[in-house]
Amino acid sequence: MNPLSEEKVFKDPVHNYIHVQDSTIWRLINTTEFQRLRRIRQLGTSYLTFHGAEHSRFSHSLGVYEITRRIISQFERSGYPDWPKEERLLTLCAALLHDLGHGPFSHSIEEAFHMNHEDWTRRIVTGDTEVNDILSEIAPDFPDKVSAVIAKTYDKPIVVNLVSSPLDADRMDYLLRDAYYTGVNYGTIDIDRILRMLRPYQGRVVVKESGMHAVEDYLMSRYQMYWQVYFHPVTRSSEIILRQIFRRAKELYQDGYPFGFMVEPLPQLFEDKLDVQAYLKLDEALIQTAFLQWSYEDDRILSELCTRFMHRKLYKYVEMDSVDLEMIDEIRREFGQAGMNPEYDLEIDFPTDLPYDVFRPGDESSQKQILLLDRQEQLREISEVSDIVRSISGIHRGKYHLYYPEDKLEKAITDLSPSISRIFKL
Amino acid sequence: MNPLSEEKVFKDPVHNYIHVQDSTIWRLINTTEFQRLRRIRQLGTSYLTFHGAEHSRFSHSLGVYEITRRIISQFERSGYPDWPKEERLLTLCAALLHDLGHGPFSHSIEEAFHMNHEDWTRRIVTGDTEVNDILSEIAPDFPDKVSAVIAKTYDKPIVVNLVSSPLDADRMDYLLRDAYYTGVNYGTIDIDRILRMLRPYQGRVVVKESGMHAVEDYLMSRYQMYWQVYFHPVTRSSEIILRQIFRRAKELYQDGYPFGFMVEPLPQLFEDKLDVQAYLKLDEALIQTAFLQWSYEDDRILSELCTRFMHRKLYKYVEMDSVDLEMIDEIRREFGQAGMNPEYDLEIDFPTDLPYDVFRPGDESSQKQILLLDRQEQLREISEVSDIVRSISGIHRGKYHLYYPEDKLEKAITDLSPSISRIFKL
Amino acid sequence: MNPLSEEKVFKDPVHNYIHVQDSTIWRLINTTEFQRLRRIRQLGTSYLTFHGAEHSRFSHSLGVYEITRRIISQFERSGYPDWPKEERLLTLCAALLHDLGHGPFSHSIEEAFHMNHEDWTRRIVTGDTEVNDILSEIAPDFPDKVSAVIAKTYDKPIVVNLVSSPLDADRMDYLLRDAYYTGVNYGTIDIDRILRMLRPYQGRVVVKESGMHAVEDYLMSRYQMYWQVYFHPVTRSSEIILRQIFRRAKELYQDGYPFGFMVEPLPQLFEDKLDVQAYLKLDEALIQTAFLQWSYEDDRILSELCTRFMHRKLYKYVEMDSVDLEMIDEIRREFGQAGMNPEYDLEIDFPTDLPYDVFRPGDESSQKQILLLDRQEQLREISEVSDIVRSISGIHRGKYHLYYPEDKLEKAITDLSPSISRIFKL
Amino acid sequence: MNPLSEEKVFKDPVHNYIHVQDSTIWRLINTTEFQRLRRIRQLGTSYLTFHGAEHSRFSHSLGVYEITRRIISQFERSGYPDWPKEERLLTLCAALLHDLGHGPFSHSIEEAFHMNHEDWTRRIVTGDTEVNDILSEIAPDFPDKVSAVIAKTYDKPIVVNLVSSPLDADRMDYLLRDAYYTGVNYGTIDIDRILRMLRPYQGRVVVKESGMHAVEDYLMSRYQMYWQVYFHPVTRSSEIILRQIFRRAKELYQDGYPFGFMVEPLPQLFEDKLDVQAYLKLDEALIQTAFLQWSYEDDRILSELCTRFMHRKLYKYVEMDSVDLEMIDEIRREFGQAGMNPEYDLEIDFPTDLPYDVFRPGDESSQKQILLLDRQEQLREISEVSDIVRSISGIHRGKYHLYYPEDKLEKAITDLSPSISRIFKL
């Protein structure tokens, strides 16, 4: 379907080579919108904890495309009748583009400004963009179809499954890639074996029963990566500061503060007036540049926060089994009395509030299930069969973390009551 | 010597863990100046060719420190009398800080503005900086000593050897790290074996003769990495555009052009008036932000170049065995007549002009030699012993590359003479 | 303590280099008894399932020694007061020699002849052997001490812990090594991190609490390796045939059958009269040679079994949720009527009968516990803290396997009743 | 062409999975003759130097098959017209079976008994064997065709090229596999890239010019593996002892010596009367068993040699730049006078006498060339283009090694003249 005269390859540390055979895919990669993903890190601020984790969403998106391509190739080679061959290009495009709408430091900026990257992805795919032009050449309704796959509303669940499901190309790539770049080897999974075990069946992607242990291993890797990498308290600390910066800058902007540095499209961001063209100008280079410039602003809250973020003077934390509101109020009150700023100098974090998904076996929504196909062609949800998976399902660590600026607390120490001091191990 | 109460580690994909045992090293890593290296990529624009190569000089600097630490540990464990134990901390500091003065897209910016990162490293180390404060606590002349090691003028060559010589910690780390992040496996060397083979001897670091093959392999890896990665023509293309942007922006600035976007310390850069504080504000986030903003400037040359760089619409190239000035003049003339801009739309590149070093065995300067120590305690320069090394020494590929904007050339095609068209395979 | 003039190294794919610093260790490796371990495979018949798994107990023993050496080095470097420095050499010797008594196809031969490799290890260590001579040079009671450590009766539990406990050097090496040689990546564990987390504490080896996830990952890897590799039904099939060969040969020998091939020390083996010198002549080369020769014997049962084993014509199997004795009796009866040999042509296997250990958290025996040390210097057994570990503990797969010769069953098919045929999916 | 109903896979550490799609290949793997390769080590006695190198020719043969399969798949996917599709199965069979005739400790036994493994391979393929039965089912002349490919006389050079040429599947697999199992990383090559660069062209397999550096790297890896692994002097020492054992045993047999242990087919081996059935009984288990048993023989030369080999008490060596016959005669004379056995206690070795092939660029025989195909569809022999390759071509290390039993020499020391003592550094 519009094949390239010669296959193109990208050298990739995770998949060795990424193979591009369709001219449409090649052209999509070369659009302005897709190239922008080079300036958005895959793991946000994690590079402040794991210095190797500087890889971009560009790399990840190519990886998701490549895994999807391999799955489809195998479906076609095996001649499985349940695979709708005509959906190949659509699936590949959706796989490649599924993260197109991510903003800089995605999770934090979304939380701070109530945005959603999936919405933005769909606005870019269907808006006035180079990507849209290329997709429209396939068919006028093709951009909408891509958008529907990404929104999980496309009417063939098997296509949606490949791009977003508990065992999709997205998750497989990020586990492998994040493990590779952080150097944490918990994410290493036997992707070849998993791919061999996938089968299109009755309009869905399922796993042959003999692949159960490989899936267990994949889910355990994910579990470990969440606790070791994605929820790492140092990363959380940097995300908290990031959100505080956004909050403060927005407050100041709304108050008419005369910023020393202000550049498009930051005003639109603060005014909630971003359109697609403005949104596409947002990248992590801009955010970092703004933060470095703002570290010289007169507003001391903003300049201090920016200094913390840029030079990695992060908040410290203490871990608590439980937290009650009274205690929090008391801390805030004492912080205020001691000359600290209770609005910014204390943040409470509970990891399960996090915007990452944890696999919940037994979920009734069939899109969120992993189904095993046994030799009698019976389907069973994996947690019915695997004790391991069942055991992970209910697990969460109920630890609260209190984040605070250690340097300021140390100065305020004499003004704090003994009970509060004890909490912070002073 | 001022040890930490508990060893600190960084998780690193290349060395697994980086171990910090001295409080001085720990504090240096946490300075503003060292943290800035997170925003300078190790391989400049190579990420446009190898999308995985997004790693920073921060990672590399930690790696150089770690290799140096391991070498010294081994020297100490083996009790070699020729190792001056009192130089341990100095050597570690110099290893950690040796790249501190790198600017954004280092090789290109140095060429465009006639700067030198080693000078800047020494200015930062000896200037009014956090790094200087910490080093000065060791001894008032300690910053100068670190600076001297980096300048290769320190009076103990063995210390200089570890940080800069043909077989130093710097080169060993970058080969391994660049191979890891690009995914190109040519750079894989048996570093454990090389480290085991190093010995301090008569005031220098030499290699035991039984390590000859390991050194051959290391030099071949370097040779391969140069041709496969560092001199890659696509990377060269992006570097050319980068330099053109710097050139154009400086011209415009000097002509009083009213930039839509201009921020500190760019004016100082254009006026050659950077001081240490201004220099430290330069990073790749700033350069990328400027370029993205400039892609909307009215000056068409600048906006086009910035668009090319940011959205990776790079120049194409043709390879030629030789190039003569007459031909170049003719091309430029025809380009001009066809409405192209001969100043910007043609660049000639010859890889051996590149600012990378290639090992030249037989070099008379003893600092640039690799010496083998045989069982009779005789020293021999490696190219006397190894045919392989001797054979690499004279090798260079004499291919010229002509870079040009393909889109513009295609439009101008009818205005070009057949002989010129043939050169560009039109 | 009797150091070598220069450290010796072995190149090892798993640990990169194995470092020998003591002359005692070097001499032990070069004994006849230790070299014999080159002819005993680490994974017995697993090479018939995973063709790469041809590695020997020699390699594994070096690996266990190396891990132990690294742990002790770290204990010494950290200056932990709870590590008894004077036990270093003893611990290293016990680590190196702990598998010295393994026989050919160890688990099967032990089961067939009611032997125990640990007993043999101690008999070799304390008997008239080269190993004993070298150990005795350290101190007259040194061989007994080594023997006591291996028997887990040595009076310093911390020494025993390093060599045999749920998180010992033995298990860490075999997980890594078996994963490497089979190519199954489930066994990959972050050994550097685990080693960093170990601490001698109150006479035991414990794990710092921050290493909990690394221990979880290690236990999951073990769990996966058990089900994917060690209990693999094809390997079980070959072990069953192996035991049948031993059984048949012993029967024949006791009946005075005139073997075409019989060589020392097989008669002693069949007569239960092995002494240390005879035992040391047993290796896998001898067993394989006997089996190949016996494949030409007149006794058809023996020759068929040997042919099966040597040329990998293994038994097939069917999986059953449960098995009752009546059914088994019925199968045997019908097999007999159909001209098959019910004694040999049917074997029932239930994996949890297997001679491998699975970690059982909550075990009261403190030697079998993994203890976590938290910041308040409190010890807690890991299953109290980790949901994952608790969840694995009760897991076993209750599947029975019926093994049988497919070729013979296919010939007998018409003589079997429909209900029995159904069991074998005929 | 007779495809399996479901693809079978073997887990392989080097290629991850080996895929079997044809029923013929599957059945060939399961023959007695092919299974015998499990008992022949790929690297002969190298396991005495590199303890990890215990891998078999069975593994290697599967690997050669798999690489060949991948090359052919790629040829077919790319639709290259120069690939003769009808030769697929023939090529795969020849790739799988090319080493079928290897005997135990192949290089040494061939030298000792003037045998040739390629001849044996062809005798097995065309003789009365299970392999021959299966091949004959394809076509009556199919076994002869397979034999012709292995003998390099088949009339389509492209088929021969894939199985034996300087850049064939055999060499690619053994470099990767031997590197993996020894742990020496010099053999690591980018096989995916090399495979991508191969092209069938005018009846041969050639390499696209852009793959030149990958080929250089492959040839350098080979060069390094030869010197680091295949020619390792400790391995040579064990090979020398092995040949001496064969020599002594044959002498004794011919003299009618009453061996305590003698078993089929050793008599046929000593009498040069091996037929195919007898040859197939030879394996390394048998040789090791014989050697262990012979270490108890009364003949002291044989028993000592066998003890040396089995318990790794190898000969030591000294390195000499040159050797003259007079000196050798003098050493032998003095050895004799000192009570040593000059026939066995001195061996001179010169590595380039070794039975391994080194790539010789510029070889006129076109089967031994590596040809590059440039963009103008011109073929050039690689050494014309690559300086590196040209430089390796003439390289050999002209060192002689004198091997001797150190223990005996030390006892004889007082009887040797000073000049001879000096040679052996006594």
Rg of chain A, Å, rounded = 24 Å
Mean pLDDT of chain A: 91
Beta-strand share of residues of chain A = 5-15%
What's the count of strands of chain A? 9
CATH architecture name of the largest domain in chain A: Orthogonal Bundle
What proportion of the residues of chain A is helical, as a percent range?
40-55%
Distance between the termini of chain A: 67 Å
Give me the side-by-side strand order of the main sheet of chain A: 3-4-7-8
CATH topology of the largest domain in chain A: Hypothetical protein af1432
Query: How many DSSP helices of chain A?
Result: 22
- Whole-number total of structural domains of chain A: 2
Q: What structural class results from the helix and strand content of chain A?
A: alpha+beta
Core attributes:
homotetramer; 426 residues; alpha+beta; Hypothetical protein af1432; Growth Hormone, Chain: A; 2 domains; 4-stranded mixed β-sheet; 3-stranded antiparallel β-sheet; 22 helices; 9 strands
List the helices and strands and how they pair.
4 copies of one chain form a homotetramer.
Chain A: E1 3-12, E2 16-22, H1 23-29, H2 32-35, H3 57-78, H4 88-97, H5 106-113, H6 117-126, H7 130-138, H8 142-150, H9 157-163, H10 169-182, H11 191-197, E3 198-201, E4 204-208, H12 212-230, H13 233-254, H14 266-270, H15 276-279, H16 284-294, H17 300-310, E5 316-320, H18 325-337, E6 347-349, E7 371-373, E8 379-381, H19 382-385, H20 387-393, E9 400-404, H21 406-412, H22 418-423
Parallel strand pairs in A: 4-7
Antiparallel strand pairs in A: 1-2, 3-4, 5-9, 6-9, 7-8
Helix pairs in contact in A: 3-4, 3-10, 4-8, 4-9, 5-13, 6-8, 10-12, 13-17, 16-17
Pfam families (chains A, B, C, D): HD, HD_assoc_2
Protein name (chains A, B, C, D): HD domain-containing protein
Organism (chains A, B, C, D): Paenibacillus cineris
